[in-house]
Amino acid sequence: MRTSRFSLKLAAAGLMLAGAMAGAHAADLLETVKARGAIKVALEGTYPPFNYKDQKTGELAGFDVDVARLIAGKLGVKTEFVTSEWASILAGLQAGKYDVIVSQVTVNPKREQAFDFSVPYEYSMPQLVVRKDEKAQYATLADLKGKRVGVGQGSVYEQQAKAVPGIEVRSYPAAPENLRDLAVGRVDAALNDSLMTAYLLKASDLPIKAGAKVGKVEKVAAAFKKGNPQFKAAVDKALADAAADGSLKAISVKWFGVDVSKAP
């Protein structure tokens, strides 16, 4: 069968138009979540009191877990939790393994280039942890030049420590290993979130203590892939409604004794 050049051009134009229309009508993540009836939430699952497995029940618990369930409830869907090591959690989001991360993701310019974020649901500050018998006074990260500082692998605190020339940064997959090395002298200080620090020190019998708060206030928010404006608007509204009706504050007080959902 012979086909005219005009017919071929017309067919090609039609295919291009159809492709453009399909791209224009690509489903927003909100549509996908609503159709599924559940939102897939990634978290570390080993980071108490934010997200961890309760030893008695075997179920996930923590501040992030409650926030994720609160968001899902406001959206009218169920939660499906997916656990991931922190070092690969953002890559998993980019690969589409889950819809959103609610796992102490600090908002910073570099991450904002790759992902979208909800409005913050938590505010905290970086804080040092040192041995109880430490005589040196570390008021800033700059005071730790020539020292060994333990941080979470892939965390914003790792980035902050590496930004200071002269600090030997040692990265750990989880906080307990970091603090054990601090206690026995393998590192000179640990750097973590101020809320996490308070919790760890309360639960730990290691010979360590809280050090100075260093740096600026950090914003923690839910992270998701770019290009989903309806989903972002819905999650932002869910958090705004939760702030207005007091349910977000109630979760904060439950885990920390204070409202950490408001900027200091």
What features would you describe in this structure?
GO terms for molecular function: ligand-gated monoatomic ion channel activity. It contains 10 helices and 15 strands. By secondary structure, the chain is α/β, with parallel strands linked by helices. The protein has 2 domains: 132 residues, 3-Layer(aba) Sandwich (D-Maltodextrin-Binding Protein, domain 2), CATH 3.40.190; 90 residues, Periplasmic binding protein-like II (D-Maltodextrin-Binding Protein, domain 2, 3-Layer(aba) Sandwich), CATH 3.40.190.10. It has a 5-stranded mixed β-sheet, sandwiched between helices. Strand 2 and strand 3 form a beta hairpin. Helix 3 packs antiparallel against helix 10. The radius of gyration is 23 Å and the shape is globular.
